[in-house]
Structure formats: structure tokens, C-alpha cells
């Protein structure tokens, strides 16, 4: 969006706020601000599918994660080895995973709290806010919590709150923490087990080992007897492709020549005759219409 509609700090700020809020009412309010700043940008991100990037409309539990998918993250982590032979790429990936598992398992084993460091810090910040809230019990497990803003209706049995933060993150919000403190419960019991240090240790309990030297491998006879032939066909013309394949729904920005305004090349490689190029920075009516996708009726 920033690439399409400029590096407007206000535009970026409202987009990030709209993406991260939990309540639908707050989302609609921020989208209205976004429309007032740039209607085209607001329409662009709406057409992309609100449920794909907005927390308030996510159909699944997000656990406070706002990032690209795992394929994009892994693709970025191994970009340095893409031009190596396939055996080199596999060994590079093995080395990266081996390092990740060792370092993160070591850090997880050093934790002295029941929750991970990030979750523990988040709870601490929320608990500080919870101390200043007024609580009005409805039943033993349901409450109305006044926080001076939109308030929250908490149900500790269902682990929900009308602020949606408790529901989406699976981590108690400030409203829920105020109620948990009132009843004398343990806040850890209301956190998803995925935030626990025990789950973090279990996630990195696996061990990644080197494959060793090929001369020392114990290869089964049925595998060793197979003959692998080179691929059938010839390599295509031109240089091998290095750029990644765009993700689903990702729009690719085409290069546009600043001289003739056509796409697919730049001014240094422009091959169109000089007579067809604009003389003062602007092309002819037909060229401008072709470049911008518009049509001019005479």
C-alpha cells in the first residue's frame, strides 16, 4: 500500500491502527479516517480482503501474531544460498535450523517463569492498567469492567471479553486481569498453553543433526541400485530466474519507462524510435492513454 500510495506517515499510521485494533467499531472508525485521507488506498486494502489483514475480522485465533506467512519468512532467511547447487541449499537450510533449535532451546530452558518472556511482559503491562479499573460483578464469573473508554464485559468461564482482546490473543486482557485479581485466581490458568515456557521448550526439543560425509552414508541397496538420469529437455533461453514467485494475491509492480511511458523496460534500454517519444516529458494523447490504461474519445 505504501508503494502504491506514497510514504504518507498519516496514511501508514491509520492503516496500522486499523489492522491492529480488536473491536469492529474501532476498526470502522479508523477506516473512515483512512478514507478521508486517501479513498483509493482505503478501497485498495478493502479489495484485498479485510479478513486477511485486520485483527477485528480474522476468522481464526491470531495469538497476537501479525506477520507474513511461514513460506515468506523462510524464503527471506535462506536468500543467501539460492544460487548454490541443490545439495548446498539443503545443507544451508539444515545449518540454519540446527542453529535456531539449539539457541532457542537453550534460551527456553533458562526461563524461570511459567510464561514466556514476551507473554510475561504483556501481562505486566496489562495488569498495571487493570489496577485502575472499576469492577461490577454480574455473577461469580461474569463482570462489567469500567475503564473510562469502551469498557468490557468479561466471562471468565468462556474466556471472553467484549473488547475481543481476550478472545483473539488467548491471553487475558486488562479487563479480565482485573476480574481475576478480584476473585484471587491465577492468571496463568487463563492463558493459552502456547504461551507457557513448557510449550516453548517442547517446541524446540527436537535435534537437528548433520548428515555426515556421503562416503559414510548407509544407503539401502534398493536406493543405491537406482540410476538417476538428467532431466529431459533443454534449458530455456536467457538468464536463470532469480526473483521469487509472488504470493497469492500479491500485486507485482511493473517497471515503467520514464521516456516513452511504456511498461517492461527503463529509459536506458528503451528501443522505441525517438520520433515516437514525448519531447517535453509528456507523450502524445495516444501514448499517455496507453500508458495509463485510460481511453481518450475524440
UniProtKB/TrEMBL annotation:
<keyword id="KW-0479">Metal-binding</keyword>
<feature type="domain" description="SWIM-type">
    <location>
        <begin position="141"/>
        <end position="184"/>
    </location>
</feature>
<dbReference type="Pfam" id="PF04434">
    <property type="entry name" value="SWIM"/>
</dbReference>
<keyword id="KW-0863">Zinc-finger</keyword>
<feature type="compositionally biased region" description="Low complexity">
    <location>
        <begin position="275"/>
        <end position="286"/>
    </location>
</feature>
<feature type="region of interest" description="Disordered">
    <location>
        <begin position="229"/>
        <end position="250"/>
    </location>
</feature>
<dbReference type="GO" id="GO:0008270">
    <property type="term" value="F:zinc ion binding"/>
</dbReference>
<dbReference type="InterPro" id="IPR007527">
    <property type="entry name" value="Znf_SWIM"/>
</dbReference>
<feature type="region of interest" description="Disordered">
    <location>
        <begin position="271"/>
        <end position="298"/>
    </location>
</feature>
<protein>
    <recommendedName>
        <fullName>SWIM-type domain-containing protein</fullName>
    </recommendedName>
</protein>
<dbReference type="InterPro" id="IPR006564">
    <property type="entry name" value="Znf_PMZ"/>
</dbReference>
<keyword id="KW-0862">Zinc</keyword>
